[in-house]
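OP here, attaching both records as promised.
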Amino acid sequence: MIVEPIQGEGGIRIPPDGYLRVLREACDRHGAYLIFDEVQTGLGRTGYMFGCDHDAVKPDMMTLAKALGGGIMPIGAVIGTEEIWEAVYSKNPLSHTSTFGGNPLACAAALATLDVIIEEGLVERSAEMGCLLKIGLQSVADKHSRWISEVRGRGLMVGVEFGEDEVGELVVAQLLKHGVCVAYALNNPRVLRFEPPLIISAEQIYMAVDAVDKALVETDELLASLV
C-alpha cells in the first residue's frame, strides 16, 4: 500500500485523523507492506518531522527527496525496515543501483540539512507559522467566500481551493504583481498551494496574506469587467 500522508499534487487533500492507523492495521492483518511517499510532506513541512507522525504511524518503507537537499542539492532517499532491507539486498546489494547513488556531496548536504532542521527547531516553527498562515488565509476566504470554497492544510503545507475553474489561475497572475509566487496543484488546478520555506517569518506571512486579499479584489474587478 503506497500513499502520501497528505496528497500534494492532488490538491492538499488531508485524510481524516486515524486514517493512516487504519491502513497500518489493514496491512498488518493481510501481510502487506505500508509505504509512505513523504517527498512533499517529509522533514517538517506539515508541522511534524514526517507527515505520518500526525497519526503516530511507522511505515515499512518511506521515500524522501526535495527538502532533503536543503534547497541546494538534488537528492532522494528510500528508508526501510531491517526486514525489508534483508529481504531485498542481503543476497544482492546491487539489486537497485543509481548512477549518482551515494553521491558524497549530496549526502553531506542532506546530513547538514537534517542538523539544521533539528537544531533550529524548524519542525516546531513550521507548525507555528503554518497556524498563522491558515488563520490569515481563512480570514481572506471569509471575506471572499464567493470565490474560495476551502482553506486546508497542516503546518506550512496549505491549500486554498476555489469554487470555479480558472479563477485560481487569475489570482496567481495578480499575486505575481505583488511579489508573491504560488502555483496550483498539478492534478487539481482549482487549488493554490502555499508551501513557503520553513524559515519564513511572521512578517512575511502577513505580507503574503495581504497580497492574496489584494489579488482577489483585483481578480473580482477583472471578472466583473467581463460581464
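Record two, same layout:
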Amino acid sequence: MPENQNTRQAGTSVSSPQPEQRYTPSEIELRWQARWDADASLYAAEGHDSGKPKYYCLEMLPYPSGALHMGHVRNYAIGDALARHMWMRGYNVLHPMGWDAFGLPAENAALKNGVPPREWTLGNVAAMKKQMRRMGFSYDWSTEVTTCLPDYYRWNQWFFLKMFEKGLAFRKKSKVNWCPECQTVLANEQVIGGRCWRHEDTVVEQRDLTQWFLRITKYADELLEGLDKLEGWPEKVRTMQRNWIGRSEGALVDFAVEGAVDGEADPSASLRDDNKKNCDDNKKSGTATKDRSDGVITVFTTRVDTIFGATSVQLAPEHPVAKAFALEDDALRVKIEGLLAEQQKARESDALGAIEKHGVDTGRFAVNPFNGERVPIWVANYILADYGTGAIMSVPAHDERDFEFAQKYGLPIRVVVAPNPDSYHIILPYADETESVLVDSGEWSGLSCVEAQEKMAAFAKDKGFGTPTVTYRLKDWGVSRQRYWGTPIPMVYCDKCSPDEPMPVAESELPILLPEQIDITQTNGSPLGRVAEFVNTICPKCGGPARRETDTMDTFVDSSWYFYRYTDAKNAKAPFDSDKANYWFPIDQYIGGVEHAILHLIYSRFWTKVMRDLGLIKNDEPAERLFTQGMVIKDGAKMSKSKGNVVSPDEMIARYGADATRMYALFAAPPDRDLEWQEEGVAGISRFLARVHRLVTKYADAASSSDAASTPKDQVLLRRLHQTIAKITQDFDGRWHFNTSISSIMILVNEIAANETSMDSGEISSAAIAEVFRGLILLLAPFAPYFAAEMWEQIGGEGVVFRTPWPAVNEELAREDEVEIPVQVNGKLVNVVKVPADSDDSVVKAAALADEKVKVRIEGKTVVKVIVVPGKLVNLVVK
C-alpha cells in the first residue's frame, strides 16, 4: 500500500502530486484475479452461526455450451453486483454457480463432432468456468454443481424412487408429443406453437407411447394458490403460470349418442321441428332418452347454465366417437381426415387460434340430458382432442366461436341468457354471468347464472348424467426421454415377477450409472436399449434376470432442485442436509430470463412442494423474489449462436477489460429492459474508468489522509457524494436501476474533476478528498470489482474492498437545498429556474413567471394556463 507521505493541513496545496499512471485493465485484472483465485474463502458463505442475516443470491445456472456470450454476462453481472452489495451491507451471502449439463445439445454436438457427450460437456464446463473467473464473478466454487456427474444425478434417481413410493411417478400409455428432430418425447411445456422448444422449424407430432410421468397435477391447486403469495415475482410471470395451470370450474355432462336416423338429410331441421314434441316430453324428467344409444359423449362446460341453448355437439377429429363413426362410413372418414389435416397445418404455422372454422355433420345425434332434445353431432377442425374432453356442446347465442360456426352452417341460435326475462331478442354472443338470468331453460328459468350453474350441476350429479368438476390445462409432466445423455430411470422389469409392471431398484444400488462409451449414432429407440451390459440386470424381487428401464429423465428434472444442492454440495449421504437448506431457503433473489417462466419455474415450484411433503424442507416456494432480465439484442435480434450475432466477452475483455465489459452491460439499459449492443459503449466505459484512475492516482495520498479539518468548499463535493450514496442505495433496495446508479457515479466524478483546482490549492480539505474518494471507490465496487480493489489499495484502504461496509448516507448533506425546474412556453424549453427543494406549486409558478428569459418570451401575450408538474417542469400556455 502507498505510504501517506503527503498529508497536508487544510488550506495548503497538494505538494509533489503523484505521477500520472496509465490505466491498463489487463494488468490490473489479471493481478487481482490471481489473488482472488488463491483465496478459496474469499467468496465462501459463513456458517449458520455467523450472527449475520442471510442472503441467498442466485442466477439461473447455464447449459455448458462451450462459451459465454454477452447475454450470459448481463445476467451474471446483475447477480454479482447484488451479491457484492449485500456483503458490503453486512449479510452472510451465498452466491453459487453450477452447470445444467445433461440434455440434447451435448448429445447432438457429440454426434456432429465425434466426441463423447461427457467429454464434450466437461470440456465446455472448464472453458466457461475459466471465462467466469476472468470476468471476476464472485462465485463460491466450493459449492459447484455439475448435473451430469453421478454425485448429483444419483439424487435425481433417489427422488424418482421416493415419488414412485408416493404414487407421484407412474407409467402409462398416452398420446405424447414427439419431436422427429430430437427423436424423443417432449413435455407439453416444451411444445411452443406446435413446434419443438429447441427447434423452431420442427413440427411436433402426436404419438401413442408408454411413458413415465410425474403427477404434477396433484399440486395444481397449490401451485395456483401459491402465486398470490409470490409478491416478489413479476406479475407477467405469475400470469403466465396461472394461464398455464388453467383452472376451470364447471361440470362434466354426458350426451347419449343415438344411432343414425334414415331419411334425415337435414339434422338442423329435425332439431327445429321434429324433435319439439320429444323435447317437451323429456325435459320434465331431466333424463336423456337412451333406448337407441350406442355410446356417450362427455363434454366439459364452464357454463352449464347455457345448456338449453346447445344446438349441436362438436367433436375433435381424433375423438374416439368420431373415429368410430369414421370406421362405419368411408366418405365421412375422408372428410374427418381432411379436418385433422387442417388442424395439423394450423399447428405447424402457429395459427390454430385464427383457423378458419370447418366442420362435418356426422348424420348422428346426441341427446341433451337436461331436456331430452336431439342435437346433431359434428366434427370440427377447431376442437382439440387434448383440451378438456375433446368435445363441446355448442351454444352459438352465447359463444363467439360457436356463433361463427352456427352462422356458417345454418345451425339454430337460441338465446337462453338475457339481461332480464323480458329482454332476450339479441342474437349476439352475450352471457355475462354476473348480471344475467336464464330464459327458456325449463325449471331454471329466472335464476341468475351463478345460482343456476350450481343447481344444474348438482341436478346432473343427482340424475347420474353429470358431475360438478374442476379441470386444468396443466397435464402431468412426461419425463421419459428416448435419448442417451440424461439420468437413467431407476426401474427394472422382470418377465417372471412383473413382465409389464416396473419395479424400483434398491436405494443401495444408486447411482445407476450411465455408460460412458456407447454408440449413439442410431436413432431408432433409446440408445441405452442397445447396451446389453446396462440393460441386463437382476430382479430385486426374485433374483432372476431382469431388464433396466432404457429411457432417461427429462433434463428439467436436473434444474428443478439444483439450488438446494448448492447448500450442501458435497453430501454423499443425502441430497442435502435439511438444517442447511432450511437456513438458506427460500432464495432471497433469483435472477434469470422470462423464457423460463413455465418450463423451469413451474417444475421447480412443484419439486419444492414434493420435497416439503417428504420432510426434507420447510419452505413452500423456492424463491421469495424473482427478477427477469431483458435480452441482449444485436442486429435487431436476440443474441444467440443460432442467429450468428454473438459477441464474445473474451474479445471485449482483451480490448477494454472485464470491468468495462460488465459495467456496460449494467449501464446501457435498465436491467429489466432489452439492451441493444454497441461496442462503442464498452469503449466509453473504459474511458470513464481511465478518468477515475487518473484522479485516484493523482490524489491517492490526500485520499488516505486522516485530516479532520474542513473548508467552506468541502460541502460542494460532500453533498454530491452523499446524494450519490443515497441514490445508489435506493436503486439496490428498489427497482435495480443500475444504469442510473452508474450515471450518478459519473456525475460525481464530473464534480470531482470540476473541483481539481480547488483540491490542488487546498480550498478543499484532505478530509473531504479522503471521504469523497473512499466513497467513490466503495460505490464502484459492486460494478467494477477489479478496478475498485486496485483503487482501494492505491488510497491505502484496509481489508477487501467489497467486504468493507457500504458507505452510510449523511441525510443532512444528501438533502437538496435547491432543485432546478425546466420552464417551457407552449411546450418549448425557455430556461431553468432554481427554487428551494421543498417549494410548493405556487412558489414554483411565481419563480417561473419572474424569470427574465420567460418574461421576454411571454411579453405582450396572454398566459392562459400554468401547468406545474411537481419537481419536474413548468409549462406556460400562452396566446
